[in-house]
Design brief:
The complex is a heterodimer of chains A (352) and B (465).
Chain A (H helix, E strand, L loop, with lengths): L1 H6 L28 H26 L14 H8 L8 E3 L5 H6 L4 H8 L32 H15 L6 E6 L6 H12 L4 E7 L2 E2 L2 E2 H4 L16 E5 L3 H16 L5 E6 L17 H11 L1 H11 L5 H24 L15
Parallel strand pairs in A: 1-2, 2-3, 3-7, 6-7
Antiparallel strand pairs in A: 4-5
Helix pairs in contact in A: 2-3, 2-11, 2-12, 3-9, 5-12, 6-7
Chain B lengths: L2 E4 L9 E7 L6 E2 L4 E6 L4 E5 L4 E6 L5 E5 L3 E6 L27 H5 L29 E5 H15 L3 E5 L15 H5 L4 E3 L4 H13 L3 E5 L10 H9 L1 H4 L9 E5 L15 H5 L5 E3 L4 H13 L4 E5 L1 H4 L2 E5 L12 E4 L4 E5 L3 H14 L4 E5 L2 E3 L3 H11 L2 E4 L8 H12 L9 E3 L10 H7 L3 H11 L3
Parallel strand pairs in B: 10-11, 10-12, 12-13, 13-15, 14-15, 18-19, 18-21, 21-22
Antiparallel strand pairs in B: 1-8, 2-4, 2-7, 3-6, 4-5, 6-8, 9-16, 14-20, 17-19
The chains are: A alpha/beta (352), B alpha/beta (465).
Chain lengths: 352, 465
């Protein structure tokens, strides 16, 4: 274990001998074309997230979902590309509060997710967690965290557990450009590199921390360089292109599995909706949003390639769309009809 | 003029130490900065440097002497040209024959340390009710709280490979307060892990490891620094089980010294007992005796929930009888009746017990027979034991070092009002730390902390004596 190597038998700093100040943003990983199956998989997964989120937004508007609800629309390529780079059920995933997409792509049941959003007993947390707090040990999904940045230390700890148990599992730790300014992120970077922990830090840079643009919040807006002082390699990725995400994800995950320590991926992405349902997003122009939708939409990119390659017809894609809508509609139906948790649930799960 | 070299205090709580080695002998010349002796405190072996120049005229305390009180003269330096044989101002020194290590330091006897005596003092003879968890006929070994905590961790680490210790200076330094002494040697750096100074980060990292099923013991050098980490403790460790509908919990122990030490000022002297015991999803343990420290820490490590384990630096060096059992585990959530009595119930925990036990002895001399309850666990709180006692005595005084508002005492008072109102013959009084940040000056610090006479006065007030 690197812990032992780093700490024992040497009075000099553990970093001695390591080259310093050589890490720059790594060159972008070359994007490889997807196979037909991969394109179709990505298309379907991204579409599921989008339709699910659209439905959640609608249900929020109807008062069926309460509290905070942060939609992932626009960012779908990030989680789908990364999921294609890991071993589901073995590698762990942890993220912040914009988490519905991460759960769906991990294979968590859309009914259970939607029922949690409506606060019903069939929800992943029996209605006691809500939008930001769902977990699945089976899928190795560790939430769903409501405190900005807290998941970064926790994810580093999940990676620590992999190292402690001598597995080659990797933890994907997602956070946003906003969380990237939290102190514990750097405390975690330091320990992760010091102990060579297998964690991929995925910074989903959607340009706005709630209403504050990165240029107004961040002295260093190149987030791929946020690990430079810890010698953690990082690279910028076109987070709207699922192929680019997967290629970078493959590289980062392989790096971690090989025991080389953490890796940073800055995903340049965009959320089409406000920060949460109650955010009118007045801090950016409609044109800006429209331009992203028209020119960079992650789903449209795949769709265009599928048609161009003649791997699918319009009818084939309509069929997929219909299947996805069915899944989402039955999730919504379940989530509205499932009963609320029993009153006795108030007093359970406080202590084991 | 000859100059006395005094036994130095080498830590905020050091009262005495072992003069383990002289590096100079009589007749040697010394100049400022020369290392003249090695002194062993309960935490470390430290070198003592000369500040004055001259010749060692006399070594007053032979090497190997234990329990040399702080400020005892240990050697005399004569300035150049002074008559070495001249008598010194120091008390008569023993012949410089090697004394057995166990010998009392005569100098220490002759001249008590002038330093203000901290709260810790010699044990007082109190009839302690036997712990029902301990089988009859068990042998007891006098053990410090420090050793008991270390033994508990070592035993649990032997038992379960998922248990590891993480924190600042826990491994190579052997623990800032020597609680993890020897663990690195036995369990290797894979399981005894030095961290950077990064409380927020390592509390989160350890909680993540616990979510993954490992059983971390997180040592905070003191709980004052855990405020940097309190978000992870409460929002991540304590709430995840509930938020996940029971799917995922954090089996983790956060431990370290809590509360005032001695003369370390406001930022390093705070009692977090009521802070953590406010939080559903946590267990909070505050042991007083070494036996409780051991039995409850073992239980905490095995517990599937996050446990806050509040120790106390001043108690670390206190010795208590610890049962010699292969696997001594005490139940979390059970108070212990430290002494049975009939006139009044005194409720305390942790270092508060040092005031309470002395008050009980003093009250006994005045004919007041107090029952003393050591809560041991603050969450879940064993209020039933308190209520049963108050039903018998009709009166209650609480003792703690924490601040008065929203204190453990306030909570007990409210519980008693709700659940034992008809049994109360007097208002519940609480003795607490004063409602001020901890001052540095020795006299002010003493005033800020509770004291025995406040406990005695409170008991007299509720017993109308």
């Amino acid at each position: 274990m690197a812990v032992a190597k780093a700490k024992v038998g040497s009075k000099s700093a553990p970093a001695a001998g390591r080259k310093t100040a050589t890490v720059k943003s790594a060159k972008p990983t070359p994007v490889e074309n997807f196979s037909k199956d991969q394109e179709l998989f990505a298309y379907r997964e991204m579409l599921l997230i989008r339709r699910f989120e659209e439905k959640a937004g609608q249900m929020y508007g109807m008062g069926l979902i309460g509290g905070f609800c942060h939609l992932y629309i626009g960012q779908e390529a990030v989680v789908v590309g990364m999921q294609m780079a890991i071993r589901t059920g073995e590698d762990q995933t942890i993220t912040g509060y914009r988490d519905h997409g991460h759960m769906l792509v991990a294979g968590m049941d859309s009914k259970g997710v939607m029922a949690e959003l409506t606060g019903r007993r069939g929800g992943y947390s029996h209605g006691k967690g809500g939008s930001m707090h769902m977990f699945s040990i089976e899928k190795q999904f560790f939430g769903g965290n409501g405190i900005v940045g807290a998941q970064v230390s926790l994810g580093t700890g999940l990676a620590f557990a992999n190292r402690y148990r001598k597995t080659d599992n990797v933890c994907l730790t997602y956070f946003g450009d906003g969380a990237a300014n939290q102190g514990q992120v750097y405390e975690s970077f330091n320990m992760a590199q010091l102990w060579k922990l297998p964690v991929v830090y995925i910074i989903e840079n959607n340009r706005y921390a709630m209403g504050t643009s990165v240029s107004r919040s961040s002295a260093q807006t190149d987030f791929s360089r946020r690990g430079v002082s810890f010698d953690i390699p990082g690279e910028k990725v076109d987070g709207m292109d699922v192929r680019a995400v997967k290629a970078a994800g493959d590289k980062a995950v392989a790096w971690c599995r090989a025991g080389k320590g953490p890796y940073i991926l800055e995903m340049e992405t965009y959320r089409y909706r406000g920060h949460s349902m109650s955010d009118p997003a007045k801090y950016r122009s409609k044109d800006e949003v429209q331009k992203m939708r028209n020119e960079h939409d992650p789903i449209e990119q795949v769709r265009a390639r599928l048609l161009q390659q003649e791997w699918a017809t319009e009818d084939d894609l309509k069929k997929i769309d219909a299947e996805v809508r069915d899944i989402v509609n039955s999730a919504a139906e379940f989530a509205q009809n499932d009963p609320e948790p029993d009153a006795s649930e108030l007093w359970t799960d406080i202590l084991k | 003029m000859p100059i006395d070299i005094l036994m130095p205090a080498l830590s905020p709580t050091m009262e005495e130490g072992t003069l383990s080695k002289w590096l100079k002998k009589e007749g040697d010349t010394v100049k400022s900065g020369d290392v003249i002796a090695e002194i062993e405190t309960d935490k470390a072996t430290m070198e003592v440097e000369a500040i004055d120049e001259g010749t060692i005229a006399k070594l007053l305390v032979p090497e190997g002497t234990e329990n040399v009180k702080v400020n005892t003269p240990i050697a005399v330096i004569a300035a150049d040209g002074e008559d070495l044989s001249a008598s010194t101002g120091a008390p008569a020194a023993p012949k410089a024959e090697p004394a057995p290590a166990a010998a009392e330091a005569p100098a220490a006897e002759a001249k008590p340390a002038p330093a203000a005596a901290p709260v810790a003092a010699a044990p007082i003879a109190i009839q302690v009710a036997a712990d029902p968890a301990i089988p009859e006929g068990t042998t007891f070994v006098s053990t410090t709280v420090r050793e008991a905590l270390r033994d508990a961790m070592a035993e649990e680490m032997r038992r379960d490979p998922d248990v590891f210790v993480i924190g600042e200076e826990v491994a190579e330094y052997q623990g800032a307060y020597k609680i993890t002494q020897g663990l690195l040697q036995e369990f290797s750096a894979e399981r005894v892990i030095d961290t950077p100074i990064t409380e927020h980060g390592f509390a989160g990292l350890a909680t993540g490891a616990a979510l993954a099923g490992l059983r971390p013991i997180v040592e905070f050098m003191t709980f004052n620094f855990a405020m940097q980490a309190i978000d992870q403790i409460i929002n991540s460790a304590a709430k995840t089980l509930y938020m996940s509908g029971g799917q995922l919990g954090a089996p983790i122990v956060f431990r370290g010294p809590n509360g005032a030490a001695a003369r370390v000022g406001a930022q390093h002297s705070q009692d977090y007992s009521s802070w953590y015991s406010h939080i559903p999803g946590l267990k909070v343990v505050v042991p007083y005796t070494a036996a409780d420290a051991k039995g409850l820490l073992k239980a905490a490590i095995r517990d599937p929930n996050p446990v806050i384990f509040l120790e106390n630096e001043i108690l670390y060096g206190h010795s208590f009888d610890v049962p010699q059992l292969d696997d001594f585990v005490l139940p979390i959530g059970k108070a212990r009746i430290h002494k049975v009595g009939k006139d009044v119930t005194i409720v305390s925990f942790g270092i508060g017990m040092t005031y309470a036990t002395k008050a009980v002895a003093e009250l006994a001399e005045q004919g007041i027979d107090a029952e003393l309850i050591d809560l041991r666990t603050l969450r879940p709180l064993d209020i039933d034991t308190v209520i049963e006692s108050v039903k018998k005595t009709g009166r209650c005084v609480t003792v703690e070092e924490g601040w008065p508002q929203n204190s453990i005492g306030s909570h007990i008072a409210s519980e008693l009002m709700e659940k034992a109102f008809d049994f109360l013959d007097a208002p519940v009084l609480k003795v607490t730390g004063k409602d001020v940040p901890m001052p540095y000056a020795a006299n002010l610090e003493k005033l800020a902390l509770p004291n025995v006479s406040e406990v005695v006065a409170a008991v007299k007030a509720v017993t109308y004596r």
